[in-house]
Amino acid sequence: MGMVDDMLKEGPDPSSKLIGRAQGLTAVPSMEQNGGILTMLNFVFTDGPYNGSTLAVFGRAVLGTVMERAIIGGTGRFRMARGYTLSKQLPSTQGLLVLEYDAYISH
């Protein structure tokens, strides 16, 4: 089990604008090596047009692949949101784990 409280930025560049936090829980439910990580995340927006809103994302992640996870709700501008995210790991020269998310949302 682990806790997540990571920066949510507009882009992968370390100098890109901070727009919120990715907060939540992770767990390794599989006994297999590279079996994936169960993630329960809230994207908490603190700046920009979605300031004060959240997006709830749930699902399985395997680093090194394109990861699809369900959008199961949200608050503010994302109230009752449904959809999915596609994310992938990007190379980082800073020693950081950098993930790029694309969100596909319906209300």
Automatic annotation (TrEMBL):
<comment type="similarity">
    <text>Belongs to the plant dirigent protein family.</text>
</comment>
<comment type="subunit">
    <text>Homodimer.</text>
</comment>
<dbReference type="InterPro" id="IPR004265">
    <property type="entry name" value="Dirigent"/>
</dbReference>
<dbReference type="GO" id="GO:0048046">
    <property type="term" value="C:apoplast"/>
</dbReference>
<keyword id="KW-0052">Apoplast</keyword>
<comment type="function">
    <text>Dirigent proteins impart stereoselectivity on the phenoxy radical-coupling reaction, yielding optically active lignans from two molecules of coniferyl alcohol in the biosynthesis of lignans, flavonolignans, and alkaloids and thus plays a central role in plant secondary metabolism.</text>
</comment>
<keyword id="KW-0964">Secreted</keyword>
<dbReference type="InterPro" id="IPR044859">
    <property type="entry name" value="Allene_oxi_cyc_Dirigent"/>
</dbReference>
<dbReference type="GO" id="GO:0009699">
    <property type="term" value="P:phenylpropanoid biosynthetic process"/>
</dbReference>
<protein>
    <recommendedName>
        <fullName>Dirigent protein</fullName>
    </recommendedName>
</protein>
<dbReference type="Pfam" id="PF03018">
    <property type="entry name" value="Dirigent"/>
</dbReference>
